[in-house]
Automatic annotation (TrEMBL):
<keyword id="KW-0479">Metal-binding</keyword>
<dbReference type="InterPro" id="IPR045131">
    <property type="entry name" value="CISD1/2"/>
</dbReference>
<keyword id="KW-0411">Iron-sulfur</keyword>
<keyword id="KW-0001">2Fe-2S</keyword>
<feature type="domain" description="Iron-binding zinc finger CDGSH type">
    <location>
        <begin position="53"/>
        <end position="92"/>
    </location>
</feature>
<dbReference type="Pfam" id="PF09360">
    <property type="entry name" value="zf-CDGSH"/>
</dbReference>
<dbReference type="GO" id="GO:0051537">
    <property type="term" value="F:2 iron, 2 sulfur cluster binding"/>
</dbReference>
<protein>
    <submittedName>
        <fullName>CDGSH IRON-SULFUR DOMAIN-CONTAINING PROTEIN 1</fullName>
    </submittedName>
</protein>
<dbReference type="GO" id="GO:0046872">
    <property type="term" value="F:metal ion binding"/>
</dbReference>
<dbReference type="GO" id="GO:0005741">
    <property type="term" value="C:mitochondrial outer membrane"/>
</dbReference>
<dbReference type="InterPro" id="IPR042216">
    <property type="entry name" value="MitoNEET_CISD"/>
</dbReference>
<dbReference type="GO" id="GO:0010506">
    <property type="term" value="P:regulation of autophagy"/>
</dbReference>
<dbReference type="InterPro" id="IPR018967">
    <property type="entry name" value="FeS-contain_CDGSH-typ"/>
</dbReference>
<keyword id="KW-0408">Iron</keyword>
């Protein structure tokens, strides 16, 4: 088994490669496991730090819903969609990251 780890910008990335056998097969097949874990530190070190929460909106002509929020804190359980996890992250780290909002243009 080989193991590689990289830590950058508050994220810990580990990749291991193991040999294994899939169920109902006779041949050994290599498998990879990738684990990405967000560290408890600020994601936004310098952008618009005077604002309580950085939220940007983009108007889109063709959108199925009137409003869609995309995660920018990397903590959402529904990633890439925002589930509000940035609130807990901001309280824990003093950060001010918020979602990217896609809004449907009015016709």
């Amino acid at each position: 088994m080989s193991m590689a780890s990289v830590s950058s910008a508050g994220f810990c990335y580990s990749k291991s490669r193991t040999g294994g056998v899939k169920p109902n097969t006779a041949a050994a097949t290599p498998r990879s496991l990738v684990v990405v874990r967000a560290e408890a530190q600020a994601i936004n070190p310098e952008i618009r730090k005077t604002e309580e929460k950085v939220v940007d909106s983009v108007m889109v002509a063709e959108l199925s819903k009137p409003l869609t929020a995309y995660c920018r804190c990397w903590r959402s359980g529904t990633f890439p969609l925002c589930d509000g996890s940035h609130v807990k992250h901001n309280k824990a780290t003093g950060d001010n990251v918020g979602p990217l909002l896609l809004k449907k243009q009015k016709e």
